[in-house]
Amino acid sequence: MKKTLKKVLAVMLTLTLTVLCFAGCSSSSGTEEPDGNDTEKTAKFGIVVQTGANGAFVDMKDGIIEEMKANGFENATFDYKDAQGDPAALTTIISAMDDGSYDAIFTIGTACTQTLVNLASETPCFFCAVSAPVQAQVITDMSTPDKNATGTSNAIPVSDIIEMGYKITPDVTKWGFVYSTSQVNAVDTVNSAQEYLDGKGIAYDSATVETSADVKSATETLIANGCDVIFVPNDAIVQDGVAALAQVCEEEKIPTYCSSATTVNSGCLATLAIDDKGIGAKTADKCIEYMNGTAITEIESEVVGIDYCTFNGSVASSLGLDAPTQDTIGYEIQVVGQ
After folding, report:
1. CA 280 to centroid of chain Cα atoms
2. pLDDT tens for residues 297-335?
3. What CA–CA distance (Å, rounded) separates 26 from 12?
4. Angle, vertex CA 279, rays to CA 135 and CA 150, nearest 5
């Protein structure tokens, strides 16, 4: 009897273990293990631009999104906001994004970046196209990021652009600058250009504007004061009114140089430019590093160099100029406006 009981118990134990084994296997095969892409699937990013009227900013935004999606974040959420040039709206947008729900925020341009950094936000900031990050106080040192921010700088190579100008239009004698003092990027660029011209003993004059409606009259004033070449810095306000500037200069046969390929497309003659989508992609690459586990303090900020010369063929024709060659100016040339 005892032997029979032992056999029964042994059989029951074996059956129990078998059931448990199958249950365990069933549970294991029926539950999806994390595939390592949960972060990519649930990530949420903010993108803020000061004004979508600046086509360069829109291209940068597109470059950011395309690069993120190409590197595993195709299912992430991208919350794009345009302040439409309104400082109050910009503050409202940035403050609303600083709610802890975003993995990172991309800020395009100096004003957006300053607004976020000044909040001392715990959400990391990846800035795009801030021409003078240290001077704008959004970062203390390019190689050792602080303030929970890092990104890309499109420091304008003003001396190179001016030298290119003399290769295309060698007879110009007095430069004119149109810019807004509210635009930190523009002020820094104009100061650098004027310092360079001072060193060369070349004359210049400046006219400042408060709104895009002032750009035309400011340009006319500079021409009346003897400026025979106009330089447009990286200025969102002037960009909004650059079509009027270009028209006045074309009528007066005045060549115009600028800081952005977008501004050449808007009617200026030429610039040495970065690729706007390209700088957006480079900014995204830094965020990807962060999302893959690198501390933001270890992701150096980067000055993006010149990609090519953008030259407006239609404007050149109206001024009686031929397109330069790569041998003449030392850069690949992309001709637009034809």
Report:
1. 5
2. 999 999 998 989 999 999 999 999 998 999 999 999 999
3. 21
4. 45
Angle of CA points 304, 240, 107, to nearest 5°: 40
pTM above 0.70, yes or no: yes
Question: What tokens appear for 1 in the block?
Answer: 């009897």
Mark out the alpha helices in the chain (DSSP H runs): 2-30, 38-42, 55-70, 87-97, 110-117, 158-168, 184-200, 215-224, 236-240, 242-251, 261-265, 276-291, 313-319, 326-329
Is 50 exceeded by the pLDDT of residue 6?
Answer: no
Specify burial of residue 301 (Cβ count, 10 A radius: 0-12, 13-18, 19+): buried
Q: What are the CA-CA distances from residue 255 to residues 72, 251, 334 (Å)?
A: 45, 10, 18
Residue 229 near residue 174, CB atoms below 8 Å: yes
Please give the DSSP secondary-structure letter assigned to residue 212.
G
